[in-house]
Amino acid sequence: MRRGYRRIRANLASFAHDLRIPDPIKLERAPMLATLKSYVAACGLGADWKVPETLQEEHLIRTLSVLCPFPPTKKRTLLDAPTEAARAETLLTLLRVDAYTPPSGSAENIPLAG
Fold this sequence. Notes:
mainly alpha; 48% helix; elongated
């Protein structure tokens, strides 16, 4: 101890990958924006479409991950993605699932008896 503080020598080698600059995301912008527009419409939200069209891919994915009103379990799934590319793919999947509305008259719209 020095001056009342405990001193340690930490081995942080197992966290070296945190300092690596991630590879750029190869995101197809048109399908992402089309899915986002479907999601916004399905959720009854509004959006300024100039903003997502001008953001870089990394910023778009991070911003949508924060701003989309997903429940905590889905937010956790985005946080747990091991790479930015995996986060982008997960986000796109979540948007597609939440934007999906079954066709009218399908079995998914028939109430169950009970």
